[in-house]
Design goal:
The strands form four sheets. Strands 2, 6, 7, 8, 9 and 10 form a six-stranded antiparallel beta sheet that branches. Strands 1-3 form a two-stranded antiparallel sheet. A two-stranded antiparallel sheet has the order 4-5. Helix content is 42%, strand content 13%. About 1% of the residues have low confidence. The protein contains 17 helices and twelve strands. Helix 5 packs parallel to helix 17 and helix 16 packs antiparallel against helix 17. With 494 residues, the chain is of the alpha+beta class. The chain binds adenosine monophosphate (AMP) and magnesium ion (MG).
């Protein structure tokens, strides 16, 4: 029996509502739900943040995580933002179903927004019901935590609560609430919202707050706003390079879904590549492939141009000079992104730095993978096994035969670059996962959940929490889909 006493909930702070003008948010309490039940609690994340898991699992904790009665030290609010959705301007967005209770601090002093997603309607809900289907909430929990375990910057998921209520979508579905944590939920769309406010002082207040919150080292720079643009470009380039390297397709890279913090946010119809097809699109709403896998870097740059144009009045007092600065910085994205991408991909084939050899090897490898429709994740992992025959095999056919010639060439190049087999193996196995949240695995686990069986979700979460290690009892989760269970379309499920 655990004799530990319940400490109580986290301390909540309120810098957003204290330091920003009230046009950036509206106070809004969550709407109570009928029969809340704590389905999943991320005890590792809670412990790392020093939040008492006994409290989170208690009656009081449930009142907080369900939004039924947030603790007295919270001041719930919804944020305002605009955005470009599939390239179309939408001034009227904002948190339509997500409510921030306040900010908490990690033991190292990192501030996190503590948000309930699916917590009821807000002044920004429009025609929406402010709720989210439980399946979509669980999907976000599983994928965001998998991303964190893969060392990809992301919002985190602390808990999933079922509500005992249903939401009307194509059919009636059980609804859920996700407790989501982020270093800061300010989006490119939050800056775009300033064009609606038509107030240079409010734009400045938002930029100053963002800098203070996310990049305080920039405060003393000559022009902190140019530096903010530069830093955001750097963070986006780094993030997208990681997405590409892991084979992640976000699916809805609208400017309201891009955080200045460089964290991945809003796991709607996102998906992971199975076989390597660079123009892969999974989202059922992405009719023209705007957010296809190979388009993501270009779209990131387009999104950053939206941020740059929102920041223009702060970049230089003279309009023309501001435009020149914006253009110069946004154009530099390509080079920054290419540098990150080359390194991420070099590591996948055992190189510790990127050079002409690693880039040419990657180019040739991807070409063959595309022609042969090889599984993206499995090919890289399996290649590492070909360096060391002593390593346990994942399955019998562990060397992709169409690559025999490439492997020979690759080994020569490793040798010429003075990279030992051990270094290459260790480098590769630290970045090439065995397990990713494959689309068919998510679908199967969520289908079981709708029948009342959460076990597959728990197994998947467990596997994905250490994706580079073998989980002997769950080795089936390492397998690509077959023709029958392959998922080619994903749905937003909002
Ligand atoms: P998303 O696709 O989740 O990024 O949402 C796009 C916009 O629609 C955001 O402003 C959301 O707050 C809003 N939204 C999505 N679903 C709902 C809902 N069920 N109720 C109210 N607003 C919603
Ligand atoms: Mg969104």
């Amino acid at each position: 029996m655990n004799a530990r006493s319940i400490k109580g909930g986290p301390e909540f702070c309120h810098s957003y509502t204290t330091l920003l003008p009230n046009s950036f948010y509206r106070y809004q309490k969550p709407t109570s739900v009928r029969k809340p039940n704590l389905l999943i609690l991320n005890t590792d994340l809670a412990s790392s943040l020093n939040i008492d898991t006994m409290w989170l699992s208690s009656e009081e904790g449930l009142l907080c995580l369900s939004g039924n009665q947030p603790p007295p030290n919270t001041k719930p609010f919804a944020t305002a933002y605009s955005g470009h959705q599939f390239g179309m301007w939408n001034p009227e967005l904002g948190d339509g179903r997500a409510i921030i209770l306040g900010e908490i601090f990690s033991p190292s002093g990192q501030r996190f927004d503590f948000q309930l997603k699916g917590a009821g309607d807000t002044p920004y809900s429009g025609m929406g019901d402010g709720r989210a289907p439980l399946g979509a909430i669980l999907r976000e929990y599983i994928v965001s935590e998998a991303m964190a375990a893969l060392s990809i910057p992301t919002t985190r998921s602390l808990a999933v609560v079922s509500t005992g209520e249903r939401v009307a979508r194509q059919k009636l579905l059980p609804s859920g609430i996700l407790t989501r944590l982020s270093k800061c939920l300010i989006r490119i769309g939050t800056f775009e919202y300033c064009s609606r406010l038509e107030s240079p002082s409010k734009l400045k207040a938002l930029a100053d707050y963002t800098i203070q919150r996310l990049y305080p080292h920039l405060i003393k720079s000559h022009n902190p706003y140019i530096e903010l643009l530069q830093e955001t470009i750097e963070q986006q380039a780094r993030l997208i390079a990681k997405w590409q390297a892991i084979g992640f397709v976000h699916g809805v890279m609208n400017t309201d879904n891009i955080l200045l913090s460089g964290e991945t946010v809003d796991y709607g119809p996102c998906a992971f590549l199975d076989d390597y097809q660079p123009n892969a699109v999974f989202s059922s709403i992405d009719k023209h492939g705007r957010y296809a896998y190979n388009n993501q870097p270009l779209i990131a740059q387009w999104n950053l141009s939206c941020l740059a144009s929102s920041l223009l009045p702060l970049l230089d007092q003279k309009k023309l000079s501001a435009l020149v600065i914006a253009e110069e910085y946004v154009n530099a994205f390509d080079e920054i992104y290419n540098k990150y991408y080359a390194l991420e991909m070099a590591k996948k084939i055992g190189f510790t730095i990127a050079n002409d050899d690693s880039s040419k090897l990657i180019e040739d490898l991807l070409k063959t993978m595309q022609e042969q429709k090889l599984d993206y994740t499995r090919t890289f992992r399996t290649l590492s096994y070909s360096l060391n025959t002593d390593t346990p095999k994942l399955c019998e056919n562990h060397e992709p035969t169409p690559l025999t010639k490439w492997i020979q060439h690759w080994r020569e190049k490793l040798w010429q670059n003075n990279i030992t087999m051990t270094t290459a193996l260790n480098t590769m196995q630290a970045v090439n996962p065995i397990y990713i949240p494959r689309n068919h695995l998510l679908d199967e686990a969520l289908a079981a959940m709708t029948l009342g069986n959460l076990q597959p979700c728990h197994e998947l979460i467990d596997c994905l929490s250490s994706p580079f290690e073998h989980h002997r009892q769950h080795s089936k989760y390492a397998l690509p889909p077959n023709n029958k269970n392959k998922v080619v379309k994903t749905f937003c499920g909002t």
